[in-house]
User: What shape does this take?
Amino acid sequence: MANLAGDNSTREGELLWSPTAAQRDRTNLATYQRWLQVHRGLHFADYGSLWEWSVREIESFWQSLWDYFDICASVPPRAVLTSRRMPGADWFPGCRLNFAHHALRNEVPGATALLYVSETAGLRPLAWPELARQVRCLATRLREHDIEPGDRVVAYLPNVPEAVIAMLATTAIGAVWVSCAPEFGARGVLDRVTQLEPKVLLCIDAYRYGGKDFDRREEVRQIVAGLHHLELIIHVAGSAKASSPAPALAAPDLRARAWQDLVAGDAGNAQDFKFEQVPFDHPLWILFSSGTTGLPKAIVHGHGGILLEMLKLVHLQLDVHPGERVFFYTTTGWMMWNFLASSLLCNGCPVLYDGHPAYPDADVLWHWADASEASLFGASPAYVDMLAGAGVVPRDKYRLSHLRTIMPAGSPVTAAHTAWFYDNVKRDLWVATGSGGTDCCTGFVGGVATLPVYAGEIQAPSLGVAAQSFNDRGESVIDEVGELVITQPMPSMPLYFWRDVDGVRYRDSYFNVFPGVWRHGDFFRINERRGCFVLGRSDATLNRYGVRIGTAEIYRALTAVDAIEDALIVNLDLPRGRFFMPLFVKLKRDAVLDAALERRIVDCLRREYTPRHVPDRIVAVPDIPMTRTGKKMEVPVRRILLGLAADKAASRDVMANPESLEYFVDYARTQQDYSIQ
Assistant: This one.
């Protein structure tokens, strides 16, 4: 049963699972609806009517969440929302609170805060008192090193407990958290964080992945050399053999401290620790866009918006109950890590995995999902493809008795993907497919525990998310592919982009197509029952195994390859959850695309950024299609490769070199590298 079903075996929209009445009654969503009836006098017959209220009466909805989750604010807000204008919505003005405070208020003696497993060590618990103690110690040490509210703290760490602790300590004092996974090369990190002028760097100098040790000492030295405002380096001991003492990483004039020294001892009584009380829109953390048109945009999220949104997402949309284990395969460079760590807000127990998802065996994540007694397990659809190809059938080997929810996210989920879980994992399973983004750090559309699951279909828009599909005329359409738009403000919308003077880049990113309406950049379809289909990027962003990659990153790296005059890269979302990412290169005179040049290109992208930046195929072309203003025509090329006629994919009138399209038309007709069937 392991292989993905063929296209005709499971039809899109086929009913795969329905919750029983008892299951619906036990959901957090049902509990919230009963609370609304008692405390607000509101009765909703179904999720659809509840959602309609949440996007129509948005002030009442978000106030209800504030009260339902008992948000603790040292100064109460003057209002819920002063204006519904986008951009410009001002949420809960005047209040003062702290994100980390709401996580640490779940501290209970004897309870487990999180679980952690790596390639070099088995499953280990971290108790709440110990996690909270380390958070308070590190926060106190950061204050002693003069780290103040608003200062940026950058982490170059894998998915380990130290990353969660450091995030909570950073945000507890009002500093701003930023993280990059150690698979990134120095240039990839510096492209992101140089603009932030961080004062603190937490780093690991080696990590283990796929049974191999990766030494990052040289990358750390380059990162340190490129960050001119650093005042403190914190070295976290790694599990790989290359780990070295902290002083070896520091410049002579920088303070370098070992992690274990900073979290040793006692930070005083928990009641005496002061969480920095900050405004609702005080910067919490910064996530990065893919960098499609220049350097990655530094997207700033706020304490209050993320606090409310994560409570809603984890508790109501994903139905995580206190003490339940949440296991999502992610790195610290993906927003799903922020989601995973934020499950602490609802007293969920995150399961951290540091390693390769298929080493030493293809089913290793299922082994740890079973051993950790995970209630929710999540990964990208590409992971499902890998499992199917390897013939993995988890139900034949593992009990998975606690598993209730599967969350596929990161790229389009097909009907065959959805059916695979029911055929190979459990029949009584809620597949809560989600889609959202780094921009909002949540799901726009996703799971609803009280609704049925249909093959290939995301169950519904999330509460408080006025998601619609707009055609080119800005009209809302049903059962037509359009643009995913959000027509009402959300508290977790980006506050701004760092160093975006006057908000020009912010407005151009979201509001330059439909004024006053947030255009997210995904092709989107919604049906009559509000089932949703996110069909891939409508812009040039590359969605590679659930990780968004900017084309500009590829082009910047390729400037180091002197044989290349120009380049264009696209990623194709293919049927059955497949991808094909070709790199087209225009070579300089007398250069030849041989095996040696291909190796140089691959090595350059892998070294400067990550293995995910490496294309599936490199193709030499006579010219790169360009507009008259010098912009590469990535989206038209992608559409041509997916079978659209050239005249419909691009307007030759705006092109500097319209004849360049002919190569791609021929390639789409004759290629053997991929199949769109």
